[in-house]
Design goal:
Blueprint lengths: L4 E7 L4 E7 L6 E7 L4 E2 L3 H5 L4 H9 L14 H9 L32
């Protein structure tokens, strides 16, 4: 079940909104300011990875704005296809086709293990 975002105070000229979301498992609510024009949300996710957060998607849904226009070009199917068309990057084959490693992982004897108790 997804989060329920309540979108209030949308400013069409600035393309900003206030989004209120209930904190999971609690009766408290958290409020975020979303700016579609600046591609920012108070939660910070949009700036961190370039993908719009659920709060921005809630604003887009509420005001019938196509969220695709906020997806960076590097995530487009065209760019994805170009990445692998050069032959430099090859997708990984199925795990059944992987070579067996010619090494073994072993415990680092110099690492001290703390025992709880």
């Amino acid at each position: 079940m997804g989060m329920k975002h309540n979108v209030d105070l949308y400013n069409h000229s600035r393309r900003t909104a206030k989004v209120t979301t209930r904190v999971a498992g609690m009766t408290r609510y958290r409020t975020y300011r979303v700016s579609l024009s600046e591609r920012e949300c108070d939660c910070g996710q949009w700036k961190m990875d370039g993908m719009s957060c659920s709060h921005a998607l809630g604003v887009c849904r509420e005001y019938v704005v196509d969220p695709i226009i906020y997806v960076p070009e590097c995530y487009s199917t065209t760019e994805y296809a170009l990445t692998y068309s050069s032959g430099f990057f090859m997708p990984l084959p199925d795990m059944d086709e992987w070579d067996e490693p010619n090494f073994q992982l072993r415990h680092n004897p110099g690492r001290r293990i703390r025992r709880r108790g």
